[in-house]
């Protein structure tokens, strides 16, 4: 997002929330901004796990008043103070997001509008599509600079598949009993038109043997398959299964090279 923007996004699942808000946080940390988050509740654990997988924080990291990623009270009247404090510390910009889980236009909307207008503040308001009230989409469009399009290729609430250019992003849990999800991955891969397939699996936190075998067998034929950011367990499983299919080519590479330093969000701004 452009610095200083005020956007909203409609989400279809919890996996979408983790992925979209996680991307927003990671982008802010990489830009040297302070990221403020409100109302996460039980979603904290999922989001911190994603930050660890991306290399933004280390194992055991927790947000505090001195880290670049901070929790703020779910009180719109206290947001301006938190923003002013972060800017006074020397951050070039501030980001604000969280989780909106109640119907209707959120109370923070009125609070963030003047902050975005007067300061280098970037806001992403994440609404769940299932909780939209009649006419609310139009109201949100009028309140914001833009709506962020995060439409997935597939999302059933457990497994989510998205595309960015030629790279497919697999997130959540994928098992052999989820035939629709497997079919969606293979169809999206075939849509590459014979070009080498690349899947980012950094956010794929469960993959069973049956699903892995089906995907390797079907998708790793010429011109081959590249898996980006696979966990140790996923990498080991795929290597073992690839040996069953000597005519299949699977390459495993680390996460994309633009990751920030491992402790980028841990210390106070210098």
TrEMBL record:
InterPro entries, A to Z: MEDS_domain, STAS_dom_sf
Pfam families: MEDS
Domain of life: Bacteria
Gene3D superfamilies recorded: STAS domain
MEDS domain segment(s): 6-144
Protein name: MEDS: MEthanogen/methylotroph, DcmR Sensory domain
Organism: Geodermatophilus amargosae
